[in-house]
Design a protein that fits this description.
The chain is an alpha+beta fold. It is about 15% helix and about 35% strand. It contains 3 helices and 5 strands. A 5-stranded antiparallel beta sheet has the order 1-2-3-4-5. Helix 1 crosses helix 2. The radius of gyration is 16 Å and the shape is globular.
């Protein structure tokens, strides 16, 4: 029997009241990302390693209130400053590994200018 794989696409859109350079920095600068990257307001992000270049890798860990670590890692497949970040996403071993199984997810973050930007 041949397994048929269906592609699942989730598209989100959000407008930030910040220059694109600041938004791009929030995704690619480990110190900035640590300030906002967490699944809950009381969680911390003790680890943010980011080599934001095509072929570069990243690794992010979130710590719950109970002290559990949730770590995700991947590779940047496309990096166009201020325009696009594309990267793979895989949960590492631990409580989240079962969520993704053995499959990687591709995440694409696109940015576009607003009428107010030069």
């Amino acid at each position: 029997m041949t397994e048929v794989r269906q592609e699942l696409v989730l598209e989100l859109s959000h407008r930030y009241s910040a220059p694109r350079a600041d938004v791009f920095d929030a995704w690619t600068n480990p110190q900035v990302l640590k300030r906002w990257w967490a699944a809950a307001p009381t969680w911390e992000t003790p680890l943010a390693e980011i080599d934001a270049r095509e072929g570069g890798s990243y690794r992010l860990s979130m710590r719950t209130d109970a002290g559990e670590l949730h770590t995700v890692s991947g590779e940047f497949t496309e990096v166009r400053p201020l325009e696009r970040l594309a990267y793979t996403w895989s949960w590492e071993q631990g409580p989240d590994a079962a969520m993704s199984g053995s499959e990687e997810t591709l995440v694409i973050v696109d940015s576009s200018k607003t009428a107010k930007e030069p």
